[in-house]
Every structure is written in structure tokens, then in C-alpha cells.
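Board notes (copied after class):
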Amino acid sequence: MNKIIDEDLQNIIGADLPWGKLSGSKIVVTGAGGFLGGYLVRSLLRLNQSGKLGRPIRVIAVVRNIDLAKQSLFDCLDVPDLEFFEWDLNQIAVPNISGCNYVIHAASLASPRFYSTNPVDTLLPNSVGTAALLQLLTNSSDPRGFLFVSSSEVYGKVPDNSVLQEGDYGVLDPATVRSCYAESKRLGETLCVSWSQQYKIPTFIVRPFHTYGPGLQPNDGRVFADFAFNIIRGENIVMNSDGTARRAFCYVTDAVIGFFTVLLKGVCGNPYNVANPEGELSVRELADLLVTLYPDKKLEVEMRSQQSNYLKSTFNRLIPDIANLSRIGWKPLVAPEMGFRRMIESYSSNE
């Protein structure tokens, strides 16, 4: 396994959490072949090797394309506690998986590059897919928890000077294609709290803000990934905006520990911001930081016109308040300088 990812997994399972709650459980993870899903699957499998559990976890990796997922999780193929299950969350049907105790729903087209070209494929997994998975857990004889990976996009257009608590919301125009992601995430959250109210399913909601790290793909389409791969390829960083938009960048280990903190210690039905407000940077500041981290590459920042298929966000600054998650014992530890260095160097690490 990649040395940096291996260290990340050790840091995740080293978190002071009541991991024993997961002992002997069957856990469904959607989006298992993706960036966050891959970290979640590997973390659960690493727990089985840690001695922290009385009985091993059985992980069901729900993926849209099993061949691609096996390429992504190539290092896990011989692990006996992992099972792949091919399923399209765009369909209105409940997957035939029996006896599950937890569902972690991390499947989503998160990049804005999909919003104009694949809006239906963007919104369905967050809406009908969420309903199907909630029903899956409702059918179980021992449902212990449903974790919905939502998004900071649910806040809509908010004042640029605001620090967002979980109850702060701005305008979101539903009659625009750009809203396919945010509106469906909003619906996914409402489905979770409604299922909890009516069927007593313990549901938990996390709202990650701009999570990055090893495992992101070159075609991801989000600016922080594009910039990192510019550095990896030795290319000048290309900016398609004025660079003033400000975001809170959170390294993947901090985010995943935050997810498990909510699942194992959070309040049912309450959304939690999972982000690093100390990692706030403008897009231009991020570009300058990455160039500065690798002066030997002698790279520069280039300005170009906006690409046609990228639907720009409606807000300029998106910074969270993390007090609710901090109160149950979580805090982000990895600064952008360290996190982006780990991400970039992971692609050249073969150990």
C-alpha cells in the first residue's frame, strides 16, 4: 500500500472513539470505489486488524461498476471481510442486501463538472438512492446507524462575511441546473430525519467542506484537485476564475475521523459541519501556496477564461462553524501546507 495512505489509515483508527460499537457488524458503504468511500472502506478493514474489536466487521462495498471499483481498491481484494456489491443508486429500487447494521452513504457526483452534463445522475443518488438505502436499513432486524454524507452546498447563497452554523441557510434557486447537487443533498437530509422520526432509524448527517487528499483522480474537476495535479505533472497552475472565492480545505484524515465521530457519538438527526476553518484560503491563495511548496519546479499561476461546462458556485465565501462537532470530541489537525504536500507526494510514493 502507498506509504502515505497507510499512515493516514493508522491515524484514523488511532482516533479516540468507541470503535467497539462496530464490533461484529455488517456495514454497507456506498461510493466505495471513490475518494472518500475508499478511505472509509480501508479504515473499517484496518480496524479488523487493530485489536480494537471483539469480532470483525463485514464490509459491503456498494459500487456502480465493480471492475472499476476493484481497480481502485486493488490492495483490498484479498481481504476476506470485504464483499463487492454492484448497484446503481439511480434506480428506484432497494438493493438486496440482508442483515446489515450500518449504512454509510458516500456515493455522489460531487464535482461541479458533472452538474451541467449529468444533472440527473447527480441528483438521483442523493435523493431516491438515499430513500432506497434507508429502506434497506429499515428492513434489517438490527439497524444501528445510517450516516449520510451531505455537503456544504446545502447552505445556498449566504453572506460572504458569515461563519456558518448548522442552522444557517441562504437562498437556493431550485429551477436551475446548478442546484441539482445542493437540492438533492437537502432532500437527502430531510429523508434521513423523516425516516428517523417515522421508523426510528438512527440517522446521522455530516456536511463536509472541500475535502482533499490522496486518492483524488486527475479528472476530478474541482479546483483543488486540478491545482494539485498541475503540480504533480510539473505544469503551471491554471486558474479559470479571479481566484477570490474562499473555502475551508480539510484533509481527508480529519474528515473521515469526523464522520466516524458523528456516527459513533453524534445526536441522531442533527447535521454536523466537518471542516477545517483554520484551513481557509482563497482559490488564488491556494494556487500560490502549492507553487511555493515546490519552488524547485519553477511553476507559475496562469489566468484563463472560465471553462464552459463548469457551473460556478453562487457563493464567494463558505466557512463553517464546527462547535457542534468539537463538543463531541473532534478537531481538525492537518493544515493545508501539510495536507496538500501529503496529497501530492502520495502520487509518487510506491512504498
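Comment from the instructor: The mean pLDDT is 93. The chain has eleven helices and 15 strands.
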